[in-house]
Amino acid sequence: MRILGIDPGLQVTGFGVIDKNGQRLAYIASGCVKSGRGELAARLKTLLDGLNEIIATYRPAEVVVEKVFVNVNPQSTLALGQARGTAICAAVLAGLPVAEYTALQVKQAVVGNGHAKKEQVQHMVKRLLALPGMPGADAADALACAICHAHGARFGALQVRGLRMKRGRLG
Amino acid sequence: MRILGIDPGLQVTGFGVIDKNGQRLAYIASGCVKSGRGELAARLKTLLDGLNEIIATYRPAEVVVEKVFVNVNPQSTLALGQARGTAICAAVLAGLPVAEYTALQVKQAVVGNGHAKKEQVQHMVKRLLALPGMPGADAADALACAICHAHGARFGALQVRGLRMKRGRLG
Fold this sequence. Notes:
- 2 copies of one chain form a homodimer.
- The first copy, chain A, contains 6 helices and 7 strands; from the N terminus they run βββαβαβααααββ.
- Chain A is of the alpha/beta class and 171 residues long.
- Chain A has a single domain, classed as Nucleotidyltransferase, domain 5, CATH 3.30.420.10.
- In chain A, the strands form 2 sheets. Chain A has a 5-stranded mixed beta sheet with strand order 3-2-1-4-5. The first copy, chain A, has a two-stranded antiparallel ribbon with strand order 6-7.
- In chain A, a hairpin with a 4-residue loop joins strand 1 (2-7) and strand 2 (12-21).
- In chain A, helix 1 packs parallel to helix 2.
- Chain A is globular and about 40 Å long.
- Chain A starts with a strand and ends with a strand.
- The model of chain A is unreliable at 154-171 (pLDDT under 50).
- The interface between A and B is medium-sized, with 31 and 31 residues.
């Protein structure tokens, strides 16, 4: 099963593609789409086009979008929502199912600690996927989403049943 | 010139279509798309499909999306952002230009008072478009966006030049 993880952001949207074969995870691709400067509609179009291209290239079976929750200020929350809506549009336009996990769930699944730091996530993603180098922060977050889903999918729909991960195990 | 106004919301997205012939505005259609209950991706898909259908049916030349700004709580701001991103995706997928106006600009243009109440907007939309009955609140807001753009377009790109409307006139 091929999984596309997306870490949405208006400026930078990270993506990561992995294959899950039984218990084994294999790295396929990762990177980010930058929306550049300009008007909002043009920036969202850049994100949508980029994600459409990634989906067309790697043909994932499922898409995972991080359930971001930022409480900085309403303007950036709105911007994030718009980027997140665009990411979900790209998935549903391709007829793909979308799973969502909170940052807490993702960190629990990948690091074993819901409050792990960014560097710990990058480190564990590198280790779990046997990458030759450290992935960028946005790509690492997206890959972490995909890993979380791959783990969760082992137990069935994690978020629907309302179960919680505890140090990498279902509690 | 045919204009599609959109008042985005995750639960209810209002739309309004008008034709602008010189100074004259003509009502074409209005209504709303409801996303129903269910998972976020399914709801955004319902909004996207609905707006795609509206664009295919009425073939507007331009799309106007209200620059909503809500400071209630981060969760609803995020939900709004996702609906707004979806509305803009529908427009850019059809290759249409997107204009944005704040609620203040829309109310100024339609009522002549940036702090007008919802009922005043509904009343003025009914009058300006010579509607037989009062439009629903969501449809009225969407029609008001389209009217604001039709007025602004008379003077060129309103929001780009940084001009402000004052009691229906440019100041």
